[in-house]
């Protein structure tokens, strides 16, 4: 198995429900290994990671994409924080500015957070949407549904176009050992620790933060490429990071 890791550079270990990750220290390895957890068998909708094709405002070869794993059509990831951040790839929209709307709901469809952003910059890239600390905190072990819709209207017609991605997030609790390890770990080491535990959103945010600040660091760049390749989104690894958009909705609960 170790020879395979050295040659291929990546390996995915789907963790059976209820099982514990290996006890070896993930920081000591040269690669980041994401142990994709099994989504809960009850109450997890399928979702959609890609927004599908559109012929009005978007280039046909690009699509709105959520940076999150997918298993058997279930778009699912975990976090350990009360107010998580999500990452999306926004395609080029050459005709008009794009309006994106994000909302997060609990299992009873109660609104946790919503924001609407208008993007005048037509460049494609990766954008983070963070749930602010003023929103209701996520409860441990509960499932929440997030949705992102991107829309615009073509200059050539009155027809509007929209793309939608949707998935489920669950908050999990960190054990005391992991909490202690995280306090002295670098951002890259933190990402490896989160990945070993299958905590996707914390892994992605720690690594994205490190990569944005140190794009010339080969070890961080390799980890970023490896992580996205493990979930089948390696084509997005070289995409630029977009600045945060301005909330124009004034509808946050």
What is the secondary structure topology, with strand pairs?
Elements: H1 2-8, E1 65-66, E2 70-71, E3 74-79, E4 85-90, E5 98-106, E6 111-119, E7 125-130, E8 143-153, E9 160-171, H2 176-183, H3 187-196, H4 200-213, H5 218-230
Parallel strand pairs: 3-9
Antiparallel strand pairs: 1-4, 2-3, 4-7, 5-6, 5-8, 8-9
Helix pairs in contact: 3-4, 4-5
Number of strands: 9
Principal-axes geometry comes out as globular
User: How are the strands of the biggest sheet laid out side by side?
Assistant: 2-3-9-8-5-6
Sheet-strand content, in percent, reads 15-25%
How do you describe this structure in short?
The chain is of the alpha+beta class and 253 residues long. The chain is built from five helices and nine strands; from the N terminus they run αβββββββββαααα.
